[in-house]
């Protein structure tokens, strides 16, 4: 019913409430890192999820399909520099932030 009301107003609902998709680039041996980062976001009341796939395209496809607006990217370079990349998937703006403050940055960008 709500979908019909929104459709009548030319608005759409998102398929998910997820705000952030976590993407650990590289091999699946970094699942513990994914769990750690996801836990930090969940503890901050962010709606985040992680997909266990090494293919970046799968993460992008999932985010677009579900209309998830933000992505956190962590690869080898980011691990070495102790940073994460935060990307707004609607504007494609991407910023590197310290790993230690990424949750605060996400909350600021999400206006929480």
Automatic annotation (TrEMBL):
<dbReference type="GO" id="GO:0006427">
    <property type="term" value="P:histidyl-tRNA aminoacylation"/>
</dbReference>
<dbReference type="InterPro" id="IPR036621">
    <property type="entry name" value="Anticodon-bd_dom_sf"/>
</dbReference>
<dbReference type="GO" id="GO:0005524">
    <property type="term" value="F:ATP binding"/>
</dbReference>
<protein>
    <recommendedName>
        <fullName>Anticodon-binding domain-containing protein</fullName>
    </recommendedName>
</protein>
<feature type="domain" description="Anticodon-binding">
    <location>
        <begin position="19"/>
        <end position="108"/>
    </location>
</feature>
<dbReference type="GO" id="GO:0032543">
    <property type="term" value="P:mitochondrial translation"/>
</dbReference>
<dbReference type="GO" id="GO:0003723">
    <property type="term" value="F:RNA binding"/>
</dbReference>
<dbReference type="GO" id="GO:0005739">
    <property type="term" value="C:mitochondrion"/>
</dbReference>
<dbReference type="GO" id="GO:0005829">
    <property type="term" value="C:cytosol"/>
</dbReference>
<keyword id="KW-0547">Nucleotide-binding</keyword>
<dbReference type="GO" id="GO:0004821">
    <property type="term" value="F:histidine-tRNA ligase activity"/>
</dbReference>
<dbReference type="InterPro" id="IPR004154">
    <property type="entry name" value="Anticodon-bd"/>
</dbReference>
<keyword id="KW-0067">ATP-binding</keyword>
<keyword id="KW-0648">Protein biosynthesis</keyword>
<dbReference type="Pfam" id="PF03129">
    <property type="entry name" value="HGTP_anticodon"/>
</dbReference>
């Amino acid at each position: 019913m709500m979908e019909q009301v929104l459709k009548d107003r030319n608005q759409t609902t998102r398929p998910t409430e997820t705000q952030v998709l976590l993407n650990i680039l590289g091999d699946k041996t970094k699942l513990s890192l994914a769990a750690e980062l996801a836990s930090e976001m969940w503890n901050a009341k962010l709606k985040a999820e992680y997909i266990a796939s090494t293919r970046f395209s799968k993460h992008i496809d999932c985010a677009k399909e579900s209309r998830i607006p933000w992505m956190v990217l962590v690869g080898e370079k980011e691990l070495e520099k102790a940073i994460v990349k935060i990307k707004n998937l609607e504007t494609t703006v991407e910023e590197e932030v310290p790993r230690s403050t990424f949750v605060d940055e996400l909350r600021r960008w999400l206006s929480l």
